[in-house]
Structure formats: C-alpha cells, structure tokens
Amino acid sequence: MESREEISYVSQQEAIEIDHMLMGPLGFTVDQLMELAGLSVASAIGEVYSSSEYTRVLVISGPGNNGGDGLVAARHLHHFGYKPSICYPKRSNKPLFAGLVTQLESLSVPFLPVEDLSVQLSSNFEIIVDAIFGFSFHGNPRSPFDSLIRRLVSIRNQQHTHEKAAVIISIDIPSGWHVEAGDVCGESIEPDMLVSLTAPKLCAKMFRGPHHLLGGRFVPPSIIEKFKLKLPSYPGTSMCVRIGNLPETNLPAQKGIFAASVSLEVEEDPIDQFQKWFGDALGAGIKEPHYMVLSTAGKDAKPSSRMISLEGINKYGFVWHTNYGSRKAREISENHHASLLFYWGPLKCQVRVEGFVEQVSDEESDQYFSNLPRDTQIRPIVSKQSTRIHGREGLYQQYKELEEKYHDRTLIPRPKQWGGYRLIPDFFEFWQGEESQVHLKLRYYVEEIDGRRVWRIHRLVPKLAESASSL
Ligand SMILES: Cc1cc2nc3c(=O)[nH]c(=O)nc-3n(C[C@H](O)[C@H](O)[C@H](O)COP(=O)(O)O)c2cc1C
C-alpha cells in the first residue's frame, strides 16, 4: 500500500490532456478505456466487499462516460456473482452506450426508473455505485441527479446512526464534489470507497473514507513521463491497487484481525480502557469509530449536539478541531462542561465521556494545522461555520483565490478562527449490550486526592437488566 504523499494527484486540465493523449497518439478508443475503467471498479468492489455479504448493488449512472463506466462495472459485477440493478435516467443514444444497455438487458439486469427506487435505498441494496459525474463535470447537478445525490448524502448520515446502511462507492469523483477542491460546501456525498481511475484527481486528497483504490492498469510510459506521475505498482494480476489508509488520526493503528466483541477486562485508567475498546472497534471493521457526538450548553442551559471527529487522545484528554466562531465554541466559552458520546453499533457499545473543555495552545493547533495537506488547510480559511453561506460558487471562488495565493508553497498560516479543544474527562461510562440482556456497565469517576486525580471504578457487571429502559 502506498502512502498518499507518494502518489501524484492530477488537476482537471491534466486529466483532460491525459485522455486526449490516450485517445489520440496512443491509440486507445473510448470503448476500451470504458471497459478497463468498469473492470477496475468491479475488481475493486470484489476486493473489498464480498458478493455473499454485499449482494444487491444499485448502479446510478449519469449521462456521460462516468455513467458508462458504471454500466460496464455492473456487467462485470453480474459475472462476479453480485446482483446489480441500474438506474440510468438520462440515457445517451450513442451506439457505445446503447450496446452496454443491450448487454445488460441480455443478462436480465433490471433498469429501474427513479420513481421506482424506494425511499430507503439501504433496505434494497447493500452497495450503491455512484457513477453519476466524472472529472469533466462542472456546475451544479440538475434534476434528477440533484435529488439522487441528496439521497446518497442521507445514506451517509444514516451510517452514523444506523447499523444497516448501504455502502457508497464513487467512480473517480464523488458526484457533487469539485474535481479539484472536493466537497467545498461540506454537504456532498462522503463515499465509503473511491475508485480513482488512471491517476487520482486533486479532490481525492480530501477523501476520508476507509477504501481508496486506483484502477486503470494500462498507463503508458509516455504519459507517466510527460505528467511526471508517481503511481503505485499493481499487485500480481490485479486490476486495482489500494492507496492510503484509514482516516488520518493519531489513534491506534488499524488492526487486521476482526474482533467479535470488546474486551471485558477492566483497566484502572479509563483512557486505557477507551483505547482498548477503540482498538476493538477498529479491529471489528467499524468504519470511522473516531466520530463522536459532542454536546455543549451555553449560559442559557439549552443543550446542543453535533458530530465531531476525534483527532487525538492521550492521558490529558480528547482533542478535536473546529471553528472558534461556531455555536459550540460560543457555548464552550460560556460553560466549559461538555460531553462526548461514541456509539459502535456492530459491537453494541457505547462510551460516554464528560468533562471540562479547554482550548488547546496556539502552538498545538499550529502544529496540527501544519501537518494537514495544503488543500485541507485552505478549507477552514474558507469555512465560516454556523453562519449563512452564499452559494457554492462563491466559496469555490474564494478557495481558488487562496489556492492561487499559496501556489508557490509558501507557508499557509493557521486561520485565527480555527483550532483545537481538549476535553479533560471527569466521568466515563462504558456500556456493552448483549442479546442475553446481561449488560456490561462500567463507570469511572475522578476524585482529587492530595492534588492528584484518582479514578474510582464502579463496575455494574454482569447485571440482569429488568428492561432496556432501565439502563
Ligand atoms: C461525521 C461528521 C464529522 C464532523 N467532524 C467535524 C469536526 O471535526 N469539526 C467540526 O468543526 N465540525 C465537524 N462536523 C460538522 C459538525 O457536526 C457541525 O455541523 C459544525 O461543526 C457546526 O456545529 P455548531 O454550529 O454546533 O458549532 C462533522 C460532521 C459530521 C457529520
């Protein structure tokens, strides 16, 4: 697996030029490239999601070549043992696309009109392939793709709260993202898997899902040389190769082995207990276990909650980063007490943490900021959290201006309105539910003894629960 830093990311213009070279002097046809793209996508899906567990696949195809890649992928997926269905609302009448439709129809792959898709896509499909827009798309998505994209966004939100949600796989570009700047509004699809084609586009640097793969094992040396591309080598005879790892975090490394449940051993220090359960969550394959609910309340005592990404944990507490002009920041400045909540559904686990919040030092925020990729550094400068925004184009314009301003790789200063907070815990509750209704409940309270923080453990295990509500 190659690290992100060692791989080239190409701009929209470079991607267009690469295509022109491939289909010009290098003798490829669009049919061939589409076939290779679709095969790479189907292979990537096969590598990560087994057909026995993730059988039903919905491919949403857009009107252009990205849609064609999706149609080819669907044909291969059928032959790999999946059950694909297609939603292809704006069909191209070019012979290439008509041929792909005929091929799928001959395999009895169903084509579903948008109106026939159930509201809850996750109840009918385990995988949704986003083959709506590719790297040449610009502007705002039109009907019916705008509402289809919104449905994919809502699945993503559902994943944070619900155990059973379809996984989303985007082909080359998550639809709705800008090909270079990514999800500038912070409101678009967040796929579980991105399959970049030929070379990852700049927006892929902002991909934070667990599976980033590259397909397109055919790039001739003249293209590599001309565009100075650094691409990973493909293993064996594979049509795809993995790029990058789980979301960047300084939390425990991903474990290869899948754990069936959390460890029931009790640590004296709740931070150690948390680290152990967090490791178990990663080991169980839970996606993004570092997302947590942060609840705050200002001087009016009205609570507010939102999802936040945990960026660091050590013996002093839990750190996240945000905009210091946001609502949560205002509430924290008025009342330093807050709570965090982690929920790891497949393990039936919940961890509650309460404590006192402090702003981390400027040096600590600077250090964290300086280690972020440059395009990720520009986003918080553009972002005005908890304030009204005036359209995607305006934000993108501002993003481009900043990109231009810092194109010579001068140091990007951390925006003053952005930085870290740390919650210093004084209470933990570790809860694990069991089918048998015997629940583990472990509480830690802090006590000050001779100026030292000492943890007291209340172990309420095993306890026969009278009813779920009594917990
Ligand atoms: C999964 C997920 C992770 C998020 N992570 C962060 C984060 O790390 N920092 C942040 O400021 N906002 C994050 N957000 C956005 C927040 O939930 C929230 O919308 C934003 O911070 C504004 O909140 P406020 O107006 O209550 O301050 C995340 C949202 C989601 C859905």
From TrEMBL:
Cofactor(s) essential for the protein: K(+); FMN
The reaction(s) this protein catalyses: (6R)-NADPHX = (6S)-NADPHX; (6R)-NADHX = (6S)-NADHX
Origin: domain of life: Eukaryota
Positions with a binding annotation for K(+): N66, D130, S175
Cofactor binding summary note: Binds 1 potassium ion per subunit.
Pfam families in UniProt: PNP_phzG_C (PF10590), PNPOx_N (PF01243), YjeF_N (PF03853)
Domain YjeF N-terminal: 15-231
Gene3D superfamilies: Electron Transport, Fmn-binding Protein, Chain A (2.30.110.10), YjeF N-terminal domain (3.40.50.10260)
First-tier enzyme category under EC: isomerase
Gene Ontology molecular functions: FMN binding; metal ion binding; NAD(P)HX epimerase activity; pyridoxamine phosphate oxidase activity
Family from the record: Belongs to the NnrE/AIBP family.
Annotated function: Catalyzes the epimerization of the S- and R-forms of NAD(P)HX, a damaged form of NAD(P)H that is a result of enzymatic or heat-dependent hydration. This is a prerequisite for the S-specific NAD(P)H-hydrate dehydratase to allow the repair of both epimers of NAD(P)HX.
Protein name in UniProt: NAD(P)H-hydrate epimerase
